[in-house]
Amino acid sequence: MLKGSRREAMGLALVTPSFLFLLVFFIVPAALLFVCSFWLAHSFRLIPAFSFDNYSRALSASGFYVLTWNALKNGLCTAAFTVALSFPTAYFIVYRTRGNLLFYLILVSWFSSYLVRIYAWRVILGSNGLINTTLMQLGLIDHPIEVLLFSPFATILTLIHIMLPFGLLLLVSALRDVRREYIEAARDLGASPFEVLTRVMLPMCYKGIIGAFMFTFVISAGDFVTPQLLGGREGMTTGILIANQFRSSGNWPFGAAMAFLLLAAFLLVYFVFVRLLHLLRLAPGRRFHD
Amino acid sequence: MVDTPHGRPFGSPNIFRNDVLSRRGFLGTSLALGAGATLGSWPGPMPAQAAVGGDLKIMAWEGFTLDNELKGWREANNVQVDAAIISTQDDVHAKLIGGSPVRLDLAEYSQGFEHFYVDELKIVKPLDIAKVPNFTPENIQPEFYNAPTWYWNDTHYAIPWVWGLNALVYNPEMTQPIKSYKDLLAPELKGKLTFCDDTIATWPMIARIAGLGPKFPNLTKDEMKTAFEGLGPYRDQCRVFGSSNGDVISLFSSKEIAACFCVWSGTPVETAKRGVKTIYAVPEEGAVMWCDAWFMPISAQNMDTGYAFMNEAISAKVQAEVCKAVTGGAVNKHAPELMDAHTRALFDYSDLQQVFKKSPLQGQPPRTSDVYATYDEWTQAWTDFKSSF
What we know:
Chain A has 290 residues and is an all-alpha fold. Chain A has helices at residues 2-36, 53-59, 62-96, 101-107, 114-125, 130-137, 152-175, 180-188, 193-204, 206-222, 225-230, 238-246, 252-279, and strands at residues 40-42, 45-47. Chain A starts with a helix and ends in an 11-residue tail after the last helix. In chain B, the strands form two sheets. In chain B, strands 2, 3, 4, 5, 8, 9, 10, 11, 12 and 13 form a ten-stranded mixed β-sheet that branches. Chain B has a two-stranded antiparallel sheet with strand order 6-7. In chain B, helix 7 packs parallel to helix 15 and helix 9 packs across helix 10. Chain B is globular. In chain B, 33% of the residues lie in helices and 16% in strands. Chain B has two domains: 5-38 and 46-157 and 292-347, 3-Layer(aba) Sandwich (D-Maltodextrin-Binding Protein, domain 2); 164-287 and 365-386, 3-Layer(aba) Sandwich (D-Maltodextrin-Binding Protein, domain 2), CATH 3.40.190.10. The chains are: A mainly alpha (290), B alpha+beta (389). At the A-B interface, helix 1, strand 2, helix 3, helix 5 and helix 12 of A face strand 1, helix 1, helix 2, helix 5 and helix 15 of B. Chain B: GO terms for molecular function: polyamine binding.
């Protein structure tokens, strides 16, 4: 009994610092921002009220839908490709390599700054960049391929590059919970490689997949710097609208309302994705190996 | 009259009475952040400053903090300047509005912010111009001395000190010489034009191209709509929008663009450093003038040193040096003779009236108005324009 309560106290002591940190620096500010989203603003001054004006204003603006759709497209494409590319790599690292050298090599890209990576892609994809110059020197093209840069392709490619290590980290961690014995047992029982993947591995590491997908989705969909610098005329996303309200216009309530609408869109994607995994029988809702 | 925080509408709001709160005030009422903000902005005990010296907290644009130009003055007067950098003008008022403004002894505002800062936000201290002896009609160009951007109701609110033009910049290797904005619609510039995301620099030119230039910044909503509709063909020439002056320089350097609609006149100097020649041109439609001014925020404490700093900033020698460093124009009449030939040739100091006529110093749209398109509406229209709606 005493041992149990000591263990509880120890658990509480371990959790409390991070809980307090999140409470003070995330939950309380987010709650205040949510309250603020119902207020009004005038020339950088907040006017306490309870009004849905900000939400109705955002929802009645066609631009909000277009830019939100741009953001969601960036997020969905980046997340899908990141998970699809990370999974085989994670499999290779977990089941086919003895050390973590490959893993660390991929994580090395974190040592360069986010903006440096964006500008590096500009150099690679530009009209006079590495790809176009090489193709022209090889005589494969006469003129630079302009669609490479300042397009959704450039945005998504760069975001995948930025997000891949995050996705990989989560998937390696998830796959390490799927012990070799389960895979070997499935094979011994006659399962094909596809069945091993879809009936053993994916259901057992689906939480890692959801984590990797949502983590990369939320960061990519919320990003507005990469789309602005690489996305060209179609590169605008909701983040720009929100930033404008918080900085140029000084209308925090309107910016907060748009931020919470975007959050609602993110939650919707989360529930749809989880539901989809259930429908495909890839998310059993319990851990098979417990 | 010296304004105080207690005299402004920000102090001690009561949300149950539906009072008006500033952003800082709002945060100040929150449980955790309020404590942090209060502690963070608490100036602590500080003796009254009676002479030049001590620490001076300023906020200025990058390159405009006079680090090199006032090195000798700082050492001679034992002044330690603590400079914060402005990335957008909003950074300045974000620090000053609310019940506990952050201490700043001096800061800069661009033209167009004067009434917003003085009359609406009430974050500017009126200046005692006698403490800035270099600011006299004998020293300062008449177009800048006592201009309504910094002086009204017999009160000086700021000291203008560096100006310049935002104009068209192009790469002569990639296009014919551009003499009019209409030249930007040439087929060979398809995909090679860009706009810089600098609203105050670009909006006046948008109005001017639509023939509404003299009316800016007071355009009706319909006029604003007309102005942006006229800009459609220019947008169709763009593949990308430059997110900042630096981004435009980067785009020129990588030869992704051949021309920028309206950007900082110092752009050719920066692209030349990267081996790409560009030309700054004032087309027949003119350019957009900017001018930065030092003002004393309500939270200023080391005021004597602040006055001395401003006085030095507009001295002829410092003006000549800083204009070379930032590719800007001097307000001091005697500065051009101390400049090198290149810096002096940037602007026609012998006929500033003509410069002002072709490229007037214009403000920004009103924050609130029932008649004219407001700043928010311009911001929205600009966002829509960039998003190709």
